[in-house]
Amino acid sequence: MGISKRNRRGIWVLILLCVSLAYVPRVLAEWNESSIEVSHESVAEAEVKVEEQQRVAKSQKKQKYSKRKKSYKTPPSQFNPNDYSREDWMRLGLSQKQADVVLKFTSRGIRSNEELKKIFVIPEEVFELLKDSTFYPSQESKYEKQDYTKEILIVNINTASLEELKTLPGIGDFYAKKIIEQRKELGGFIGKYQLLELWKFGTERYDKIEDRIIVSGNIQKLNINTADIETLKNHPYISYKVANSIVKMRNAHGSYQKLEDVLESVLIDQELFSKIQPYLSL
Q1: How far is CA 105 from the centre of its chain?
Q2: Whole-number Å distance between alpha carbons of 235 and 185
Q3: Is residue 50 part of a domain?
Q4: 228 and 258: one domain?
Q5: Domain span holding position 106
Q6: 70: pLDDT confidence band, cut at 50, 70 and 90?
Q7: Which CATH number covers residue 231?
Q8: What are the Cα distances from residue 34, in Å, to 21, 28, 38?
Q9: What is the number of other CB atoms lying within 10 angstroms of the CB of residue 166?
Q10: 3-state SS assignment for residue 223
Q11: Which residue of 22, 110, 198, 206 has the fewest C-beta atoms within 10 A of its own C-beta?
């Protein structure tokens, strides 16, 4: 007996329904997995965007800080920090708020750089620039009105004492000691410009004292006909190799007849000779 047309149609519908029930869950599962992957990708992209925004923000913050960073200045002359006004501190590079905090401390009176350094709003760079330019009233007269206007003294850097050097603007205890040390090592200064050879002395500091200093007096010289290598090499301008060359030529050819004879050394050119000549003798 044959299957009627209607029954055949019902069978096909049943088959299609079974197939749908078998594959639809798989399709839905694959679609969900794809959505999850897309979601993960979206999250990853969002994280990348957040990281990029944070990086840009940090970069902008650094640029903003760099633009905001001040260039600090050296005090124009020696000064008593207790007498400085808000405008004076701001001229050194402090902000108005920083200057106001400093004034709260100085209004009570400070007596040393140690106390000044403890004022937390003063940046280390500012303190390093001003520490050699400060002076303070004595403890006994700290409540008295002081007159710091002094007669301008001319200082001979070849004979000046530590205290005399400290009267120069911008020259505190540190540089006064360094000047005396350099003077001793050289055997005396032959020119003011030699102060520029001091560590971080700078042309700005030099310009402030150039008109206040002189160079005079005898220079301690090295006798190139009698000095040994050790004595010669102790001079700041003469290296061990140059000292050895001077002594070797003297031993080989006899005493020098004139200072220019040392130019026969391949280690001594005209520039070095001009530098050491004032310190040499026969």
Answers
A1: 27
A2: 6
A3: yes
A4: yes
A5: 81-140
A6: low
A7: 1.10.150.280
A8: 21, 10, 6
A9: 19
A10: strand
A11: 22
> What single-letter DSSP state applies at residue 1?
-
SS3 7: helix
Do 204 and 231 have their domain in common?
Answer: no
- Cα–Cα distance between 118 and 138 in angstroms, integer? 20
119 pLDDT exceeds 70?
A: yes
Residue 156 pairs in a beta bridge with 214
Tokens describing residue 6: 């209607």
By the 8 A CB rule, do 109 and 142 touch?
A: yes
For the ranges 44-48, 120-124, 219-223, the one whose mean pLDDT is highest: 219-223
Residues 136 and 161 in one domain: no
pLDDT tens figures, 92-104: 888 888 888 888 8
Q: Which of 193, 214, 235 is the last residue of a domain?
A: 214
Domain end among 169, 187, 214: 214
Are 92 and 46 within one domain? Answer: no
